[in-house]
Amino acid sequence: VETGEDWTARMAAWARERAEAMAASGIAGAVVKARSPSCGAGDAAVHPGGGGEPVAGDGMFVLALRLAAPGLPIVRDEDLGGEADVEAFLARALAYAAGRAR
Description:
The chain is an alpha+beta fold. The chain is built from three helices and four strands. It has a two-stranded parallel sheet with strand order 1-4. A two-stranded antiparallel sheet has the order 2-3. Helix 1 runs parallel beside helix 2. The chain starts with 7 loop residues before the first helix and ends with a helix.
């Protein structure tokens, strides 16, 4: 903020490279931080180009992860509040992994 330097392109490149590496490693799911500008899934404050009020959407890293690994189960940390939530996420991750193994 102090320098006014825009790091968007560098962050996008890093996110893309890291997401591609994670997808190539065979991950079966991802737990992300709710409302994070980089890792929020559906609830990050996304600033549209050209200014304007932020809207809820995926953070930059989550977008890259969705492109690198289509269908990958992604869950916000806050959505794993109970045993049933964790079990449901793990079931989705196992199904995703089984689909990749074919």
